[in-house]
Amino acid sequence: MIMHASCVAHRGRGLLILGPSGAGKSTLALEMMAFGAVLVADDRTQLCGAGGQIIADSPEAIRGRIEARGVGILNARAHGPVPLALAVDLGQAEPDRLPPARELSISLGNLPLVLGAGRVHLASTLLQYLEGGRADTNLHHDG
To answer: Is the keyword Secreted assigned to this protein (predicted)?
Structure first.
């Protein structure tokens, strides 16, 4: 299955970046790559199921290439297939300061979902999510 989405990998965990055309999928992927993530796929991500996981990869024709709007197509170090750990939707804004756990349901399974439209520091936040997960507690922070 091919999704209109970009994907990066960080320490063996994949992030599926969703959103309408022009939402900033490639821009977010580039920002995350600047922090050490590796490109899996830009704009079209191939998904399959294996061992109870959703695996993301790039169609061969676009492997190692990413669009930088206003600059052109850039070559990038390409990551191979990666199990997805998280999805972000750049087409939806998160209304809650401390949102409930959300999920993206696709035919291959479910993924934790972050709503990311209009968020600043999203790249660093998502890298930390991939690194350490989400603490689902009732703690409230004032920061």
So the answer is: no
Each domain of the chain, given as residue ranges in start order, spans: 2-132
Q: Which amino acid is at 93?
A: A
Q: What are the start-end ranges of the E strands in 1-143?
A: 2-3, 6-10, 13-18, 38-41, 45-50, 53-57, 65-68, 72-75, 82-89, 102-106, 109-115
Calpha distance 121→39 (Å, rounded):
19
Mean pLDDT of the region 69-79: 95
pLDDT of 137 reads 55
Q: How many Å apart are CA 29 and CA 64, to the nearest integer? A: 12
The architecture that CATH gives domain 2-132 is 3-Layer(aba) Sandwich (3.40)
Alpha-carbon gap, residue 87 to 5, rounded angstroms: 10
At 108, give phi and psi (nearest 5°).
-90, -10
Q: Which of 83, 91, 126 is nearest to 108 (CA)?
A: 83
CA dihedral 9, 11, 14, 18 (to 10 degrees): -60
Return the ∠ at Cα 65 (arms to 71 and 40), rounded to 5°: 130
Predicted confidence at residue 120, as pLDDT, reads 83
